[in-house]
Batch of 4 targets.
Target 1
Amino acid sequence: MQHSIVIVDDHILIAKALAGIIENFKQFNVLYECENGKVLQDKLKVKKNIPDIVLLDISMPVMDGFATAQWLKEAHPEVLTIALSMQDDEQSLIKMIRYGAKGYLLKNVHPAELEKALDSLVKNGSYYPEWVTSKVFMSLSSESAVHSSRIDITAREKEFLQYSVTEMNYKEIAEKMFCSPRTVESYRDSLFEKLGLKTRVGLAVYAMKNGYN
């Protein structure tokens, strides 16, 4: 069974290169390419243009990847979205997950990893880069992570979890919580230990999975 893909990227050469690579994958085919989210919106008004997967560039004019992902989540929740980026920053990752992306790839990814990501997306529902450690997502799927009521999380730690989903840095979170950055770091470290996590990305995903966002 083949799965259809749409590539949304304002760099035509990159979009064409990606399409050429994907056409060599047995289980996938490219329906078309778009230069931004607005063009995609117009294309998806026609039912036959709705794909299984959207490969979505983050930085685009007119309608960027963040806005497009958010719209897809609301208008076409059945479509799986993978974000494409030149940067491996956790803020972009957190934001794209928040807006419904099920995967995140760097644009310099090897074709073999691209195929692996697409396979994982259709089989498991998600794919994330190695710098988001597998331990994060193992913890999220474990019984202790799913049933957060069994973990003794304080009210202030819950408040911190809500802010962990935002784009604020730790200093800005401290200002919102009316405490010092060192105190915020203590909340973070305590949650790392309680939840078995190591990164802010892990905390953010945990927060979204358990309704703290």
Target 2
Amino acid sequence: MENIAVIGAGTMGNGIAHTFAQFGYNVNLIDISQTALEKGLKTISKNLDRMVSKERITEEKKNETLNKIKLFTDLKEGVRNVELIVEAATENIDLKLKIFKDIDEFSNKNTVLATNTSSISITQIAAATSKPDKVIGMHFMNPVPIMKLVEIIRGYNTTDEVMETIVDLTKKINKVPVEVNDYPGFVANRILMPMINESIETLYNGVAGVAEIDTVMKLGMAHPMGPLQLADFIGLDVCLSILNVMYDGFKNPKYAPCPLLVNMVMAGKLGVKSGEGFYDYSESRKAEKVAKMFS
């Protein structure tokens, strides 16, 4: 594989594009919004600058990486003549099924179709295509350029050849592939999301405050980030979507989203992306923090 298309220029999509390009692959980054594409490329450039400043890569390597990425708003044009397509759109089943139906039509018959879904059935997504044997899950972790793990999820019809190809490719971009089976939430989110949900329940029930809950988990369980702060970084809407997928899939009340999470999402408090979640990420709050540093 030399040519890869990545669908979605958001946090996960631009991170996946960055990683493949850094390892020498030609990447077509696709999004319906030109603004989102430009923002995604700017993010990649900033992250590469950070790597240059830490002497992890050279300025020349940064420029080579950026030159490997081409931007497309036309899906048909973007997926033409690539060997792998990685879908990294919003965690919405209807949207993903539509995308896979389209890329199945627009791509070559031998192109492998991968999804970065964090919870949705690979088999269900594959059923929207005429080649379910070539559909597979590649669940990258955020931030993609740094995190080593990639969950590799085999759908019901995924062939051994496709599985081996993607496992090998994952190793070539210096990631660690872990093969898991196609059940709601896979492994990472089946374990993580109930913990986050229980943390929100703990807050909802008045057991402790946000900072206190996160501090207990950081200092007591050696987590680098508390679960409520992590939820903010993931996106509370994404957390809610994943919990709903698992609740629908298992019909088990332990996966039912906490009412506080539901209300926060309805109120538009989605975490970092909206400027407010369990913590305040607004510009005014940033200015306040800076002011305190110099007071």
Target 3
Amino acid sequence: MASAEPPLISVVVATHDRAARLRCCLDSLLRNGYPHFEVIVVDNAPSSDDTRQLIGRRYAGQVHYLREPVAGLARAHNAALPAVRGELCAFTDDDTLADPRWLAALAEAFGQDRRIGCVTGLILPAELQTPAQLALERLAGFSKGFAPLRWSLADPPADPLFPFTAGQFGSGANMAFRTSTLRRLGGFDPAMGTGTPARGGDDLLAFLRVLAAGYTLAYQPEALIWHHHRRAPEAVPAQAFGYGAGFGAFVAAALVQEPQLGAALLRRLPKGLGRAAQRASRYSDEVPQTPGLGLLELRGLAYGPVGYLRSRLQARRIGG
């Protein structure tokens, strides 16, 4: 008997003024061995026409181009949702390279259980050539290990902070959803993500909301993405602050978006803050060439809820 046709996967890549990097990403996606996919590029608040020209010149008929004039990663992802045709919707960033089996591995993970609403995958560094790249990998490497994992509220793990340990589930540079699930949840919170005062946390909130809605979240390390860490030394402190800010914004957004989890979140908050302080204290050993990173991350954590509030007010002013 013939096997069922693999599901159509819509790949969404948000980009901002990085046409050269985007070209490498798109070339890797179009070499993907998966037989049934489309690629949508969302040009987020561009300062030039470079990305549109690149798509029209090099990828006409292969890549769909959209433009989202308001800055914000979550807003860019949401702009793609009405155009998505796939049963599955995968997201990666413009500074990544997709492994040839990336989409096939995602599809296989979803095919194992209809209750799975989201799949994340392994992210490894594409290069480690500068001290800054080495520091970023030690500071906030995206790898979540090489063993498949699953999480659900119906079968919680032993971690007392679950399900608010959303950073353990995966990262936005390698995540996929059943399109129907993501649309049912209303997409991503437009007040979050890179390019907004919140600085990040949009992926973490989406993971939490998938679990809160009763779905299972799966981690599939065979779904591999290679990430280009930034090469310049100033990227390291910026990443430390941004990591803390994104997580702080996620906590604030969780209280707003999933109020039924509020009591559980507040009970876990002291232990969570203790774990964050413990993590920050290790930075002096892990990244000794850049002192003060732990304090920067804690400052970011304190700023995160303020950033989220500012971002929500900003979104209301512009009608988002």
Target 4
Amino acid sequence: MENSIVIVDDHVLIAKALSGIISNYENFRVLYECENGKELIEKLKFEKNCPKIVLLDISMPVMDGFETAKWLKENHPEIKIMALSMQDDDQSVIKMIKNGAHGYLLKNTHPAHLEQAMLKLVQDGFYYPEWASKIVFSSLNSTDSRQANFPKLTEREKEFLKYSTSEMNYKEIAEKMFCSPRTIESYRDHLFEKLEIKTRVGLAVFAIKNGFSD
């Protein structure tokens, strides 16, 4: 099944180049391109089909990526936002994620990596490369986090938490833990209930904050 994409970037040549690259991907197609967030909003008002993914630049005139991500989060939460930028500083990464980005990539990413990242985004609901994950998780750590009060966890649940901070999908985690994907889903659901967390990103953040990761 094809996943529809909209590219939002004020550099027309870059947007066109991205469209050309993505046209070679088997599972994705570009609906249209926009030069800024305001143009995207206008398009979404009149286009019949919303995209599955928005590839979103940060530095743009009129309406930048931060504002655009926040608007999409509030008005189209079903759309997955992949930030695609030259900015790799802590402040930009954290702000984009807080504003609703589900993934973050740099523009020097190899085309094959871009395709795999978007597949992960569709499959898992998020995608952050290792360097971006470290920025986000370190910002959420606190000195007293290990003292947090939380329900007693089994050893297998702790092991699952450790793997939740990796880039492995649930099937790969199941192979690592020598059990079935259904068992992994059970661990996940029990942890969601015990910790009152709703997403894998939430589990990963919890794991990092409380020392359950490598």
